[in-house]
Amino acid sequence: MIRKLIEKVFSRGSGRRAAAPTAPAVPTGPAIIPVDQHGVRRSQISSCARRVTDTLQAQGYKAYVVGGAVRDLMLQHTPKDFDVATDATPEQVHAVFRRSRIIGRRFRLVHVMCGAETVEVSTFRAAQAVGDDNQIKDEHGRILRDNVFGSQAEDAMRRDFTVNALYYDPATEQVLDYCGGAADVASRTMRIIGDPVERYREDPVRMLRAVRLAAKLGMTIERRTREPIQAMAEIVQNVPAARLFEEMLKLLLSGHAVACVRQLRDEGLHHGMLPMLDVILEQPMGERFVWLALERTDERIRADKGVSPAFLFAALLWHEVLAAWNAGRERGVPEVPAMHDAMDQVLSTQAEKIAIPRRFGTDMKEIWLLQWRLEQRSGKRPYRALENPKFRAGYDFLVLRCESGEVDEELGNWWTRFQDAPESERAEMIANAGSGAGPAKKRRRRRGGKRPANGEPAGDESSAPGPDAG
Ligand code: ATP
Ligand code: MG
Description:
By secondary structure, the protein is α+β, with helices and mostly antiparallel strands. Helix content is 50%, strand content 10%.
């Protein structure tokens, strides 16, 4: 098999392989952009990526930093990570680096490790010819597998956007530009390579990438690239749920989630494009909460603080859970079982579209359940809530609900004080929490009764977001 692949590398450009009908013409040679024009210095490349390109070049291979890192550096952004493209096969790369491993099924790549850093090394690949054994598409034209090695020029053309198809050589500090990416960086234009309709059909995730990268980098999606997106948005549904989850996570954890989601919505792309967004952006209360959660996430990421995807997804789906919970309670299902039903229902509906990993699902449920627990302020219950390993997340979630106006601030303030209060004060707080402070609390007591699982219907409160709503 390796022989077959190597033969493919050497057969490139021989004209034996028919060009894909919609593939853009492969250019003969790249424009070479000197450092005084693009401004990216060798010192800006991570030491691991430099080591990888230097070592491969010393072995006689071509090796360049490529993709997001070159684009980001040219735009004066800090790259998330560094990718290297080479004409060495994965086996050849692996043979050169002791600390490396071959990964991937759809694309075979090599991860080269230096200390804590990992650099992803991919072999130049070509856009596929129709009928090629190594390229399989589904009935919608979506590429299921492509692993055909190719020339560097072909590798450039199979990439998604011109600004992502720039090759930087740390040795010469030159950028090789096969499709006008440098000019597009300069004018901050996201331009798809080739025919947009065909390229989106091959991989619908490219539409999401266009929006995410444009929002993150403050770029404009060029007209031709943008035009078909709205009509084609629904084919994102053909993408496997696990990949969609990954892509959604990238979007939400980009530090520019608000900008990305706003752009998706402004272009009408939240319908069917990203599962969840259409649901969550169309409930007035839910919308306020979702924007707040996204804003906080962006702030934390930009301040280099950790964020929990489970917390974020719990927030995105909270108003769905709330609606299902209220509906269950209206049918007379006791509160806690109604909450379990609601959580399962929402998670299983989402699972059809987007694969939320099980570990996140478990944490999300814990955060949601805590919303009910945090309303129980009698006896030993507040102490038990404090001991819950997810208390902090549950409390932060509650504060966010207060800020969005869904829940009376009194509840959030109570918990803010309670968690740090001395014992004597805590006892008093518990005693006072039960004595009717406002209409919201009286309602809860009436409904809460004596038992932990309230069997009374939620009545007219189901649509009125008040403290009892969660
Ligand atoms: P970032 O890492 O900042 O999110 P990126 O462009 O580096 O952005 P990666 O997923 O790391 O994104 O991909 C690396 C490169 O691989 C891209 O720059 C692009 O050249 C190519 N690429 C990624 N996804 C696709 C795709 N769906 N279709 C074609 N090329 C792609
Ligand atoms: Mg990248």
